[in-house]
Amino acid sequence: MLMKLDAFRAAVPNGYKAPGDPGYWAITHAPGLKDAYPEHDLPDLVAWHVTREGAQPISVSVEPEITGIQQLNDHWPVEELQNTRIMLIGAGSIGSATAHALAGYGVGHLTLIDPDRLDWHNLVRHTSARKHIGRHKVTALAEELASLRPDTAVTPLPLDVIEHADHVRSLLADTHLVVCTADGVAPRRVTGHLARRAGLTAVLACVLQDGALGEILRLHPWPRHGCITCRRQSLAEAGGLDPEPALDAGYGTGTRHRPMTAVGSDLHLVAQLAAKTAVATVLERAGHPDQRLPGEHALLGLRRQPDWAPPFNLDHTAELRWRPAIPPRAGCPTCEAP
Ligand SMILES: [Zn+2]
């Protein structure tokens, strides 16, 4: 709605100047307006395009005093999560999306562990952009999160969880929960072992059967909760199968990453579930029973797989199946106290 120039000039107590051609932009500040007319919800800052025809008001977006995760303070346990320190092992396709999701939940500190550098074939599934090719994935991710989610402090460490296990172990003293999205049997077992010895819960995420299934394993360091090896062996002995070896079929052949048919967004769906599992674990422990999960082992259908052995035989895409923990087996070097 164009305001006549005379009326605009009369309403502006100082600073007014007559517009030439093609006019000018101005901002008016009327700090008392809100109090004078509370029923109208008037903005105290308005921009104007002032020309010889009149003054055209334009709404102004003002940076609020509170931005970022603190905006959710009334609806979400921001404080608890800002004080939470999570170690994420694996910064690949699932890991990069998990890091973004954890930061989106407001986790205050992430330690990222992955020795790999971003390569061309990663781009189709990774959250990092092409400009980061050749850099360590953890460094690229830390940079992205710093600009997108500045409430999350990120420590990027280009370490291998097996080769640098001692270093990783020393960092666990300052960690509340571990998430592992690394592919391959060995890194997953080592992560589970290190976390259990440190008295920490580990959340392991992966896809099985060339991306047909997403899987989340929550490994608590509790007497009745078996490690990943115990759980897999118990399933295999019950007539099922052990999907673990397929996770690193490429080991020893020189191709570390076996070709995977999973599409990026399917992997990111698994990542979201991994982050949710991690955050729910932290929050339930902090006194939020409404964050309790239905089990310790989640299977998410990405393509229907009814012929697979139970419990992996999901009938539908997007089906989510939760299972309980499986107890440790006698003599397990991870589950039994050292
Ligand atoms: Zn075990």
What attributes does this structure have?
338 residues, alpha/beta, Rossmann fold, 3-stranded antiparallel β-sheet, 18% strand, binds zinc ion
What can you see in these coordinates?
The protein is about 30% helix and about 20% strand. With about 350 residues, the protein is α/β, with parallel strands linked by helices. The strands form 2 sheets. An 8-stranded mixed β-sheet has the order 6-5-4-7-8-9-10-11, sandwiched between helices. Strands 1-2-3 form a 3-stranded antiparallel β-sheet, with helices on one face. The longest helix has 22 residues, at about 265-285. Mean pLDDT is about 90; it is low at about 250-255. The structure holds zinc ion.
List the helices and strands and how they pair.
Layout: H1 5-11, E1 24-29, H2 33-36, E2 45-51, E3 54-58, H3 78-82, E4 85-89, H4 93-105, E5 109-113, H5 137-148, E6 153-157, H6 165-171, E7 177-180, H7 185-197, E8 201-208, E9 213-219, H8 228-237, H9 264-285, E10 297-301, E11 320-323
Helix pairs in contact: 4-5, 4-9
Residues 226-227, 229-230, 328, 332, 334-335 line the site of zinc ion.
